[in-house]
Amino acid sequence: MLRWVITFFILAVVAALFGFSGLAGTFADIAKFIAVIFVVLFIAGLVYNAITGRSANPRL
């Protein structure tokens, strides 16, 4: 998920360099949205691990 944030950030920078301000803003908004989802899921995983004492992804 973090790779998607970096990808959209790079696309936003490239679009801004070429003068596509609307497209750059859209890419930046998408990157922010995915970053927020990443942080929420990361915190939820930390809380789950702290409460149960085990990993959210058990070994197969």
TrEMBL record:
This is UPF0391 membrane protein PQU92_07490. The keyword Ribonucleoprotein does not apply. It holds the Pfam family DUF1328. InterPro entries: DUF1328. It is a single-pass membrane protein. Its main location: membrane. Belongs to the UPF0391 family. The chain crosses the membrane at residues 34-51. It comes from Asticcacaulis aquaticus. It is found in: Cell membrane. Keywords: Cell membrane, Membrane, Transmembrane, Transmembrane helix.
